[in-house]
Design a protein that fits this description.
By secondary structure, this protein is α+β, with helices and mostly antiparallel strands. The protein has one domain: Metal Transport, Frataxin, Chain A. The chain is about 40% helix and about 20% strand. A 3-stranded antiparallel beta sheet has the order 1-2-3. The two termini are about 15 Å apart.
Length: about 70
């Protein structure tokens, strides 16, 4: 399992947008992202640092592997 770096919410959102996710709306400090043809929505916390467990769960829900996500960063 690849080691995850500390990533901000803004950087994570940029990486997900490179993978085809688009911003649907922002509710409070969370950015809601959707992808065409995918039933899952991603709720990315726009914090200065995302917890590694939260980030790993977002990556798995997005359908990406950790290595693919790291390449998008």
């Amino acid at each position: 399992m690849a080691k995850l770096p500390l990533v901000s919410g803004a950087n994570a959102a940029k990486a997900f947008s490179k993978a085809g996710w688009i911003t649907a709306r922002q509710t409070g400090s969370h950015l809601i992202m959707i992808k065409q043809g995918c039933m899952v929505t991603l709720s990315v916390p726009m914090h200065s640092e995302i917890n590694k467990g939260t980030l790993r769960k977002l990556i798995s829900h997005s359908g990406l592997s950790v290595e693919e996500f790291l390449e998008l960063l």
